Amino acid sequence: MFANLSKSVRQYMLVTFNYWNFTVTDGALRMLVVLYFHDLGYSTLEIASLFLFYEFFGVVTNLIGGWLGARLGLNKTMNLGLAMQVVALVMLAVPNAWLTIPWVMLAQAMSGIAKDLNKMSAKSSIKALVPDDQQGALYKWIAILTGSKNALKGVGFFVGGLLLSLVGFKAAVLLMAGVLTLVLIGSLLGLERDMGKAKIKPKFSQIFSKSDSINILSAARMFLFGARDVWFVIALPIYLGSVFGWSHLWVGGFLALWVIAYGFVQGLAPKITGKAQGRVPDGHAALVWAALLAVITAGIAYAVQIEWQPQLVIVVGLLIFGAVFAVNSSLHSYLIVSYAKGDGVSLDVGFYYMANAMGRLIGTVLSGWVFQIAGLSACLWVSFAFLAITTLISIKLPKLEAVASS
């Protein structure tokens, strides 16, 4: 049955399979590190510091990874990402005495590079597999890939906690390394050798995008993801545990369910934004959804500031924020691949996800700092400010004519 499918569909399925397996290990590893190092006596802020290299090297990787993908081919960058994740997992299967903060930060740096190589390769490869005149199909495929990734990252949170309980930290990371090694072997055998390779070898100086639309979208993306992570990454988990008294299991479980629901909404984004009526989104759609998210965040921030039903506001507000944020993210993910040049697509996608990683890095740093000096409501007001900037930037995004759904 698999052999009867078209070549592009088979490649899409293989890319998605690689991405799915990687994503589960990425989510599981994050949960393993948080829970295990908490058990070892690390403070919350020390645990947060373990992820700074993960985010920082995501910025570097997306910038250089797009250039590598265009020169070498997306199959090589995807397989390199899988191999590096295997190495990162094995690095953590050492005696506890070796698990110092610098060593774990190095392993997390390796994992951050691997994750963004894999993500850039997966999303760029879809552009290479879908004809330019089938924008509806492109939007649908991107939404499915993006939504499934986030849902499976939530599954990874559960897998990490489950493996830690059943087999322990070292066995868990070695088991995941073994699974990814098998995935890597299949990828080496199955992916097209020249997928995504640019016909003209780009120079290193071309890593910075010269497209106005991509630069504008990248700036909007940076502030969008900074707005999420400034309250979600560090401030929210600490707040749920310290103010509401939730256990680590409840905090991890709730955030895992949030990520799964977030991914589910991302997969539905084409229906939500009008693909069923023959429309694909443009810059105006990104503007409207960013403005809506800003208004919602301001409402949550004000309610938390005046301490009106804080537990209800945080839980329900987070769910609403997640749903609207998911549509924003899916719209951006479609627009970048739509705007990107067909030849050497990974250059444009890599630059864009560099901005995405920069937003996450800024949000992670601010989340710890702002929460420490001013609390959760201040983090939410910073989030609102970032979303207001995202909205203003989105005014400049290109407005396209509606095209028929493919």
Topology of this structure?
Layout: H1 7-39, H2 44-49, H3 52-72, H4 74-91, H5 101-129, H6 135-166, H7 169-190, H8 212-232, H9 235-242, H10 248-272, H11 283-305, H12 310-339, H13 345-374, H14 376-394
Helix pairs in contact: 1-4, 1-5, 1-6, 1-7, 3-4, 3-5, 3-13, 4-5, 4-7, 5-6, 5-13, 6-10, 6-12, 8-12, 8-13, 8-14, 10-12, 11-12, 11-14, 13-14
Give the % helix: over 70%
Q: Which CATH class of the largest domain is shown?
A: Mainly Alpha
The tally of beta strands, per DSSP, is 0
Strand content: under 5%
Q: Quote the average pLDDT.
A: 77
CATH evolutionary superfamily of the largest domain: MFS general substrate transporter like domains
How would you describe the overall organization of this protein?
Helix content is 78%, strand content 0%. By secondary structure, it is mainly α.
Short description:
The chain is mainly alpha-helical.
Task: Write a concise keyword list for the protein shown above.
transmembrane; Growth Hormone, Chain: A; MFS; disordered C terminus; mainly alpha; 406 residues; 14 helices; 2 domains
